[in-house]
Design goal:
Length: 522
């Protein structure tokens, strides 16, 4: 299944209806943006916006929804003309070229609306080319033209701009250009800028920069597990309706522990979640899942991760690479030793990476001796595949995927014979006994605790009891106080006979221990 068939890599290519159906976890921010745009329609001064979020977190989706909503809403469309800039503005190299691009995109928008004023935009650009004006003269005349256009039509421009970090840093390297841009936006008040960037960058974060505190910022947080499952179900419905999955519709449930582990692998990132959805939604059978997973690692993830690495400065890239190379979580001191970076600079870099959502402390506490992990574990596989023996690294990633996605009994059923899939399944069973696999489960502690609490406090105790027990066993949670805690909790809520029976049985098997509440098989 190609990624374009379900949800394009560029969301703006999707229909308005598809974008609305796939909006999960961002509705509050969308409503805030739309309400603010409406409120600023008659404002004397405009407050510009910057939406921050790592790649794949939904910035393009949000921008596309704002664009379509403003066009579709009669009230908003009466006061604003949305101008959707290219996702990568490769023709911008200075302030005057930025204004030319805004007018060019405005002309395209007018053409789509069958507005005869589109010819005026084309004529202005043609005149500028023929006159050979200096850059500062082009800026002055372009700003004046936009001001006259807005005054005549009664609609301000809502300019939707992605990858603002790259544009304001690489394309507009001169501070004077940024000062002029800020001055025009503040003084003329004919353009409202809604921009996005993958992270908080120097041009807007340093007090010495012209755009410091110029934008109202919001950050896109990773999806919660429940939101991630909702999104998968939306995609599954769209796939069936479009005929890409035949007549079969995949169904994802929030009590499926395998989805919880895959959610951990994605770090709550919608785009990576889509890649994994593709890996499990092809033709039926483990062969298809294995083939698709290897293919997505080699094809789809490469463009994505290369883009993310380009977002990082040279000072922090070695930290991410060191964490990707390691088989375990690392402390600041260990990272300093592996990267040759000065120890005093590691702390600041780690704080910045954590703020950008790229790493996180395993225990929730922050400090020099705290182990840190990547928020996107799939990056580790991609990095190893990219720098090592690719075929073997793909197989290693595939084995980890199989060990997580399929139950022990399923893997055991497929181990017979000499097929390559049988060999993969045997290796997956071995992997489930390794510290690495236990480490994956360790990172899920908080989510599993909440799941157990939900099961205990649910109303249908009899219906959920055996599902809870099965869940604990499959996760490897049946060897510690976690098991006893669940039994006692269920007993307190009325499932007395079943709880006592299980408690006695497991005590006889000597499965229960006096260890602390652990979620790892020993």
């Amino acid at each position: 299944m190609a990624i374009e068939t379900t949800y394009p890599y560029t969301p703006r290519q999707s229909s308005f209806e598809t974008l609305k159906k796939c909006l999960v976890g961002r509705k509050g921010l969308l409503n805030e943006l739309l309400a603010d745009i409406q409120a600023q329609a008659g404002a004397e001064t405009l407050q510009h916006w910057m939406i921050l979020g790592t790649r794949g977190m939904g910035k393009s989706h949000l921008i596309a929804l704002v664009y379509h909503t403003v066009k579709d809403d009669q009230t908003l469309a009466g006061r604003w003309l949305p101008v959707l800039m290219h996702e990568e503005e490769q023709e911008v190299f200075s302030l005057h070229s930025l204004f030319i691009r805004i007018i060019a995109q405005l002309g395209e928008e007018l053409t789509r609306n069958n507005d005869p004023k589109a010819a005026e935009a084309t004529l202005f650009i043609q005149n500028q080319l023929e006159k050979g004006n200096k850059p500062e003269e082009v800026v002055e005349e372009a700003a004046a033209w936009i001001k006259d256009f807005v005054a005549e039509g009664g609609k301000r421009l809502l300019v939707l701009l992605e990858n603002a970090d790259d544009l304001f840093t690489r394309c507009l390297p001169q501070k004077n250009d940024l000062k002029k841009l800020r001055g025009i936006l503040q003084n003329e008040n004919v353009i409202l800028l809604l921009a996005t960037a993958p992270m908080f960058f120097d041009r807007i974060s340093r007090s010495s920069e012209p755009l410091y505190e110029f934008f109202k910022t919001r950050r896109l947080e990773p999806l919660t597990f429940g939101q991630a499952v909702d999104l998968l179900n939306h995609w599954a419905t769209l796939a069936v309706n479009s005929g890409h999955n035949g007549k079969k519709k995949l169904s994802f449930k929030k009590d499926d522990y395998r989805l919880r582990v895959l959610f951990h692998l994605t770090g709550g990132n919608p785009r990576i979640l889509l890649f994994l959805y593709m890996a499990i939604s092809g033709q039926d059978g483990i062969e298809s899942a294995a083939t698709t997973f290897g293919k997505l690692l080699e094809e789809d993830l490469s463009a994505y991760y290369l883009s993310r690495m380009r977002d990082l400065s040279n000072q922090v890239q070695p930290i991410i690479i060191a964490m990707a190379k390691s088989d375990r979580n690392l402390t600041q001191a260990e990272i300093a030793r592996l990267t040759f970076l000065p120890p005093r600079s590691i702390g600041t870099a780690m704080v910045r990476l954590a703020r950008e959502g790229l790493i996180k402390p395993v225990s929730g506490k922050k400090g020099k001796n705290t182990p840190y992990t990547l928020t996107d574990p799939l990056f580790r596989h991609w990095q190893r595949w990219r720098t090592g023996i690719r075929e073997r690294k793909v197989i290693e990633a595939l084995i980890e995927f199989l060990s997580i996605w399929y139950k022990r009994k399923e893997l055991e059923q497929w181990t017979g014979g000499d097929t390559i899939i049988a060999e993969y399944c045997r290796e997956a069973l071995v992997f489930r006994q390794t510290p690495r696999f236990r480490g994956i489960l360790e990172t899920l502690t908080a989510a599993q605790e909440q799941h157990i609490d939900d099961q205990i406090t649910a109303k249908d105790f009899h219906g959920l009891f055996f599902k809870t027990i099965s869940f604990l066993k499959e996760c490897g949670l049946d060897k510690g106080e976690a098991y006893a805690t669940v039994i006692r909790g269920l007993k307190e809520h009325g499932v007395i006979r079943e709880a006592e029976q299980y408690l006695v049985t497991e005590q006889k098997k000597k499965i229960l221990s006096r260890n602390r509440y652990l979620f790892l098989p020993r």
